[in-house]
Amino acid sequence: MLRLIGQRLLTTIPSIIGVIIVTFLLTRVLPGDTAAYFAGPAASPQAIIEIRSKLGLDQPLPVQFVSYVTALVKGDLGQSLTTGQPVTKDLAARLPASAELTLAGLLLAMAVALPLGVLAAVKQGSWIDHLCRVVATAGVSLPVFFTGLLLVYVFYFILGWSPAPLGRLDVFASEPPRVTGLFLIDSLLAGEWETFRAAFSQLILPALTLGIFSLAPITRMTRASMLAVLGADFVRTARASGLSGSKVIGTYAFRNAMLPVVTTLGMVFSFLLGANVLVEKVFAWPGVGSYAVEALIASDYAPIQGFVLTMAILYVALNLMIDVLYGVIDPRVRLEG
Amino acid sequence: MTITRRTAIAAGLAMPFVARSGGAQAQAPSRAETLLLVQEYGPNSLDMQGIGSSQPVNGVALNCYDRLLRFKPVPIPTGGGNQVSMGELEGELAESWQVASDGMSCTFKLRDTTFHSGRKVTAKDVKWSLDRACTIGGFATTQMNAGSLEKPEQFVVVDDNTFRVDFVRKDKMTLPNLAVTIPFVFDSELAIANSGGDPHAKEYLKNNIAGGGAFKVESWKPGVETIYIRNDAWKSGKLPQLRRIIARDIASPSTRRALMERGDADVSYGLPPKDFKDLLDAGKVNVVGVPIPNGVWGCYLNTQVGPFKDVRLRQAVAWVMPYEKILQASLFGRGVSMAGGTAPKVAWPQPFPYTSDTAKAKALVDAAGGPFSTTLYFDAGNATVAEPMAVLIKEALSTIGITVEINKVPGANFRTEIAKKTNPMVLNRFAGWLDYPEYYLFWTMHGNNSIFNIAAYQNPALDKLVDAARFASDKADYEGNVIDFIKLVNAEVPMVPINQPTHDVALQKSIGGYQFQPCREPDFRYLTKGV
């Protein structure tokens, strides 16, 4: 098993190298002049030249690439100009925020989507099937910034149930001692209930927004794959053998239908992690998505490269995890090196 | 009640809402002395002299560092707080100051005060800081030069408590330029001790405050929040009432507005003009607007290449500009129109003698050779205001036979675009920190061809008048020069002024003491919070 995982990891090295080269080149062909942007208002041409040479942007591309890779090997992703901090530090601070939000949103979506999808498949054509269709269509067609603003408007502005959308914690709460970077887990580890409560109540609305958005693919995938499995021979056999309905669906059908669902979950998770910029903006969530977009607007190379690289590595890790999970769900699946 | 799994989950879900009121009460004492500011984005450094510092860093410099001088607060004519008077200065670190009888130097007596570190502020620190601003390069050096503060030899330590600035020429902007957010004073010993060999201690000062201002930075998380805490030992002014300021970065303007309307945030900067107008109309929070001194939205017409080389076409654009429509539709009335000026005044910005008059404009276009097509550029970062403006201009110009294509340029590209100086039409807002007409023209129309001279205007006659006004010591001479160059640009229109935007701030009714500063960042030192 471990050897297989090791072999799988080896095959990912070329793709990571590819990602490094492509992001480096892509950021360099971006239009816009970083030096002119950061020289600020009223900069003289001479000041811009000074900044350009300070950033090393006056060097030829191969030289820039070599210095980038040399730094990368040492674990240095460079300095962000937009936040003024090392990119590794920024990402380390922001990735857990995105991960916590995305995980919460995904769990929420799963809690609704899986039962809904299963029921829709079992009772095909019934009202619950139609409900499933409506929920999925609505979820995917409402843009996240709209859902987010709507939720803020109703639950914060009108009803006042939800706390002010000020980010991960209320302004008067203090961060729990950092272990994982996920506030919910860290506050529990430290036994700080007050902080847990504060972090949890801040998380509800953005997680709900993300959850609504990711409902659609999960519900539809669950339904489709359940339908395929329910029509299979072994289910008919199980039914014919007189097994109870819940046993047939829960044990036989559902487990077999899980494979494509898990794949979808993996895709949705990695997609959401980097792509929930708008949710991050609306809820002032200090995540990686908005970080990357702000860097992009400013033609700030280092954070963009760092972000893409991190995402690529996460994606590889996630896919590996899903492959391993396949084997757990369905022992017939073999992990091939 | 037995605890089942179901009740446990229900209790867990309800917990965030149930326990809220208790928590808020326990924190009440700190809340009264704490101000919550919500802004679009926060500082990217703590050192305003450093290269690449963003606009909010001015606020850090203002509140955490002292300068020799500061601008004197004067009431905003329309009420709501104070603005500054450019010509009147008061001492910050300087207890008193005296310009020499020959007018070629100024001697400052320093206040007996200390840095956050507890060390006494000395003339040596002032020299180190001003030397640094003049030699570090980038914006800081450019700004120093704008007030004829050009080289370290100008800054002289007389003794521990006495400091002298020698002038290279008589420039009335020299003293005001000592009050802007660049020439602030560092604790030089602390900075040098942590510099790691860098004469400017750039890396250390970027991440640490080494000064003696009214506030210290308690915590700084770039892109998330900055927390300021009062320096109780501050002696360079009246001790601020607020003990703690939390400045959170909230990117979405809708969220910031909701926070203000619900009363959860105390102050918000940088909302779209429409939100300010709505907040003002709703009356729940105070909106204080100050027409940005020395600031104007202008349509720059390229005088060197393209159709607008012809002055008649530039005048045509000025005659057809829909001034009033733009003010209402893009600024929602939060500004002052620049149409229909009568006699030139000693002021900037001021209305040019043009109004929306299609017939006159059409005649000029016909005389210059009839219809043509051109492109209008603006910075996508300003789209909220600039986009409706561009659309209205396109619509108006189509009536006189000029077809306009609109090109929205992303932030990082905009500087590159305007630096090319080949774009026929560009919408831009420029605001100078020092409120003098010649200062504005020096940046935007002078032959030095700074990046903001987007029209690439070159006219030795104008340069002569602007330079003469800048260094004129006689009031009548000065005013004569200003009136002359205003008349000149009125006729030449390298830039059609559209309107002077208002700098708006939304404050809860309990917040008092609003102080507008030319750097347009919040000054926490004057703010008060009622119960």
Report on this structure.
The complex is a heterodimer of chains A (337) and B (531). Chain A is mainly α. Chain A contains 14 helices and no strands. Chain A has helices at residues 2-29, 34-38, 45-54, 61-73, 87-122, 127-141, 144-158, 183-190, 193-230, 233-240, 245-275, 277-282, 288-297, 301-329. The longest helix of chain A has 38 residues, at 193-230. Chain A starts with a helix and ends in an 8-residue tail after the last helix. By secondary structure, chain B is an alpha+beta fold. In chain B, 34% of the residues lie in helices and 23% in strands. Chain B has helices at residues 5-18, 20-26, 28-32, 57-64, 123-135, 138-146, 174-177, 188-193, 202-207, 253-262, 273-282, 311-320, 323-329, 358-367, 383-398, 411-420, 437-444, 460-471, 475-492; strands at 34-39, 69-75, 82-91, 94-99, 105-110, 155-159, 162-166, 215-221, 225-230, 244-249, 267-269, 286-291, 295-301, 335-337, 372-379, 402-409, 425-431, 495-507, 511-512, 528-529. In chain B, the strands form 4 sheets. In chain B, strands 1, 8, 9, 10, 11, 12, 13, 14, 15, 16, 17 and 18 form a 12-stranded mixed beta sheet that branches. In chain B, helix 18 (460-471) packs antiparallel against helix 19. At the A-B interface, helix 2, helix 3, helix 5, helix 7 and helix 9 of A face helix 1, strand 1, helix 6, strand 10 and helix 10 of B.
